[in-house]
User: What shape does this take?
Amino acid sequence: MLFKLACRNIRHSVRDYTIYFLTLLFGVAVFYAFNSVGSQQVMFDIESQSDADMFQTTQIFLGMFSGLIACALGFLILYSNGFLIRRRKREFGTYMLLGMPVSRVSAIMLIETVLVGLLSLALGLVLGFLLSQAMSFLTAALFGSTISNYQFVFSPEALQATVLCFAAIYVVVALFNTAMVNHQKLIDLLHADAKNQKTAVRNPWVCLVVFIVSLGVLAYAYQQLSENGMVMLDDPQFARATVCMLVGTLMFFWSLAGFVIAVLTRARGVYLRGLVPFTVRQIASRVNTAFLSLWAVCVMLFFSITAFSVGMGLVQVLTGDIEKANPYSATLMAQVYADSAISSVRDTSGDIAQRAKAMQAEVPERYEQGMAYDWDMAARLREAAPQLWEQTVGAAAQIDTYNVPGITYGQLFEGISGAVRLEANDLSDNISISNIGVVGLSQVNAVRALTGQPAIQLGADECMLANNMSLTTAVADEIARVRPTIEVLGRSLTYAPDVADTQFQDNALLATALVTIVPDAVIDDMKAAGAIPLQCWLNVMYANNGKTDVQNDEALDQIVAASQPKSMDGFDSGFAGREDSYARLLWPVTTIYTAHEMTTQAGGLKMLVTYLAIYIGFIFLIATAAILAVQQLSMTADSLPRYRMLSRLGCSQRMVDRSLLVQVLVYFLLPLGLALCHTACAVGVLSTKLFAALGVPVTGPIALAAVLVLVVYGGYLLMTYLTSRNAVNAAMRVS
Assistant: This one.
């Protein structure tokens, strides 16, 4: 009997359950789909442990955020369920008036909750399973690869996590429903429709002052954020901007209704038209009583849209040029020696042999070996494993970087234009007093030959900047235009009017920034004066040996391990937490970067950031839209007697529908509009300070965010209006 009654109640309340049910459905589907990402790896050719670790890392981070998502969904479901309880208080009172015990009423609610929960869970899992299959193709697109062995993948782990999470939420909802029914008095249930929520009446002049102050606080927050640039998040300016944004937004919604009413009531020509007074009072009543939730919705919308836009932009920043940034099969880097982080870049003593003397005193075996081989990394590695070297390495070229004490970047910036000079000094706090870095011409040409670039020609008294980092492009071009002159060990060198676009080593980014290419004679003079390299980069191209990149990477590890076995004392055995087969030495090899490893990491980072941005953005967008929908439907239900009165007074259905549409639009678009202002400031600052400087367009991420908002937020808006209109029209027909 109770089961049949619960099923009938669900059928009769299907309109009320629509938003609640769809929110549950989407929540289950998205929760399952994103927690099943780790299972997708079976569809890809996993060649190495790093490939498998990529999926595992993404799964771990998504799992961590799933806890936050579960809490948000739990609050949302509980909040939405409260609306359903409120809508049906009179129904429960009728049951009790007819003699049904409170326990049976609670049992009916429990059965309804279980049925709706099971249905949404089942359908959500089906939808989530289909969504996870679609995400497999998105994963392949993020890696620029194809799925070699497509198959339907079901994740038991994701299923278990989803069922446990939502089962816990439904248990809490069931307990909440039971408690709500048990603690209500019969008289309150029967007269629930007659009770109106108290509306706070605020002094319009106070609201006007607070509204103006809120605009000032928000303007100050934007100004602080612009100065901070959202680069240093631990900067006090960023903290002030965040606090002022939160406080200003709260003040804005607290004061808005009273301020708007005061203005509109004085504009008689606008206010006293049609149902404008009724519409304005309806909106103001809801804004006055729900300003805290509007504030929370606005902040969540800002976070959601910004996270999605910035996340998509960061993907391009971190991985957009990954192929161009890794033109070689592998790069072996030697750190050589720096007696301190400061002296390596700001040594103004004039003693060009200072670092060599310090290295000889502290690590003589590394210094002596480097000098014996003239810092030629390939010669040392080839000697340690000649056969494996010939099988693995087809070509190799080395670049040694030197710092010139006493010649700073500040000297190069002196002659350039003021605007570019400010931009140059903003690159780093110490760049103007840091020594310039120089490399030899023949080494640069040897590296360029590996990738088919033409050789650079320099005169005996010329030098040239090498740069491919977008952040320093304008500075490099301006220096090349001005053509300053520097003096290195008595040789005067004038900068050439061109800038060399050369990637000196495999890296996560295009990383050649303001490096000076000098004739080999200059490097010979520096070495004769006792200078040693600051860093050595040995770039190798694998031989055409029929092996995969992973196999060649492993062979390269073995070559390095032959020259510096793990048993040797490294300079930093815990560096980066890697489990290398070789000891990390100052020379000949400190670290190996391979193109396969870098592109794999970039693909994993792209997948991680993209999925986190979509996951967080989508869930928070659903949460905010659902909260507004529930509040609007609640207000509509409370106002049904008012709509019946309007019908009796002769208002047409068209006028009422138009008033209802305006209410829904204003209630949804008000927090969205302010959130978009916050987002425009944050994204604009990041675009100027980061994305534009790195040559990354933000129009694509912004367009994707707009589509997401339009589909999700706009869908809830439309669904809310249609549900509210149906309820109002039904009430007017029985008036």
Notes: The beta strands are 330-334, 393-408, 435-440, 462-466, 485-488, 491-500, 515-518, 535-542, 591-594. Residues 341-348, 573-577 have pLDDT under 50 and may be disordered.
